[in-house]
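Dear support,

We are seeing what looks like truncated structure output for some complexes. This example has two components. We would appreciate it if you could run it in full and send us the complete token output so we can diff it against ours.
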Amino acid sequence: MRIDQPYLLFLGDAPDDLAAKTAAGIAQWRPEWCLGQLTLPGCRTTLGLPEMSIEDAAKAGVRTLVCGVANRGGVIGQAWIDVFVRALQSGMDVAAGLHERLVDIPTLAETAAMHGCKLHDVRHPQGRYPVASGALRPGHRLLTVGTDCSVGKMYTALAIEREMRARGMKADFRATGQTGILIAGDGVSVDAVVADFIAGAAETIAPANDPDHWDLVEGQGSLFHASYAGVSLGLLHGAQPDALVLCHEPNRPHMRGIPHHSLPELEACMEANLAAARVTAPATRFVGVAFNTRHLESTEAADLMAATAERLELPCVDPVRTGVGPIVDRVRADFPSAV
Amino acid sequence: MRIDQPYLLFLGDAPDDLAAKTAAGIAQWRPEWCLGQLTLPGCRTTLGLPEMSIEDAAKAGVRTLVCGVANRGGVIGQAWIDVFVRALQSGMDVAAGLHERLVDIPTLAETAAMHGCKLHDVRHPQGRYPVASGALRPGHRLLTVGTDCSVGKMYTALAIEREMRARGMKADFRATGQTGILIAGDGVSVDAVVADFIAGAAETIAPANDPDHWDLVEGQGSLFHASYAGVSLGLLHGAQPDALVLCHEPNRPHMRGIPHHSLPELEACMEANLAAARVTAPATRFVGVAFNTRHLESTEAADLMAATAERLELPCVDPVRTGVGPIVDRVRADFPSAV
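Here is the complete output from our reference environment:
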């Protein structure tokens, strides 16, 4: 799966900003790919991009209409399908990260075939992945791991990519979830592959590379999440990370979705990730902690980061509030031959 | 998936004993279900069961023809299909654990539909599984975990089931792989479910039960196997084991299938499994070690087990050579309210 750019971002009739957070993520991290937005009547959010019809977008050279909005009830409605059909008729591909597949909608499948266009269902892995080999491969990889789900692992990896590139380093974000795939233009939803191939899919998306190249691999879930830890472990083994960044949101009352489970201590989470990672990456180490402090006052957040940095002897940042500069500093210090 | 008994075991044209090891496992652990065997010309193995034609088997009350033989080249040949068609025409279901699906062979799908019979592809999970809840559930569960793949985890769980039942305990083997499913009559191939649902599938196959009931859950892979550890961890979390048995084959030169990876020490493997299991089963503990000593002389094996038992303070057995009595003794001592 390789999604062609530039994009037109479809916001549909999104009732609020949250419904269009996928589109917002793409516009934030890949503004150079996003030529415009397309909204339907009733849409209550905007990305601040030029509003474009399918016809405008085709003239502007858009290659892919990206559905950046969640659908209510899990069903793709006729108003959306009409837009997707017109995009295909204009020669664009259509990409979406929904549970329902575009390819399962006969009108879309037929129109795409007729016009030689592609339908990308990024939540659903296409093709087969190999069983992981576990063999050491060249190039450097950094994986973001979490105390829980939805704590900022994708955001942190993207922020590190941007910071590394700004410093002239060779760096590529590697996507493992649907929003990440639309931002990267390719990747694999590792939680949707067959269980035997989790690590193999991770090896595939972050392959051997130059010795001074960094893959920033988007983590998934948490080794401590009772529902999804298998995905996290397979990804950890397949990513074969040289460096790890721990992502954490303070003050969560419990693990996401499972009220009877509390979050692990940072030290316990780091120790578990290090022990597990050593199976394929014997020299792996942590290079920082990325806090999501959106629910803290700024002084509270600063105090927490300072205290944690002293306790763990690691740079502690909030990618939104402080940026990830100190983590990239640590990477450069710890891996002097790989910068 | 619930496979009806009794069985007729199909051996096909198996070139040697190894090719029919699935059938041999079923005959060993469920002799009361196996009314006969059916071989084709060229078959070079036997289970010692009465040879039966499809017609004989139908008269004897066989409900399912079980394909207990591996197919060469991964393709189901016409000679096999002919037998399966006759079984369906005689009112039997057909079950197989092959990579190729019976349901994908049009003749079989049509014949099954015509005669109201089922095709069981036990390697391929049917239906959907829930996301794991991680909630504590009643009943007791023992999971076999391994230093590596193919070290005797299924055999050990079955041996413990048999020993517990012989002592009048309530015990059920819970299958997580294709041979185990044919032996149990149901179960889930956890390595073939979508990654997000590994733990949920494990919760499903070993559900809440009586406080004095033991599920003996068949382990898969190893937390230390670079290819498959995600499956092992999801299964560990979903099984929520009260008790663990470590399975190990001494003197393996490397992890199965990955020559550059050596096996973990027993202590390291136990520690990793305990730490991970505590996410859903805080009080979990090891109750024994099951060695596969087939490559050792009997005195060597006995010395190894005695030395390991002293070092780890756990009963050490070889389920084939010594039986698993000492492990069940330990279970009864450690869980006096659950026997």
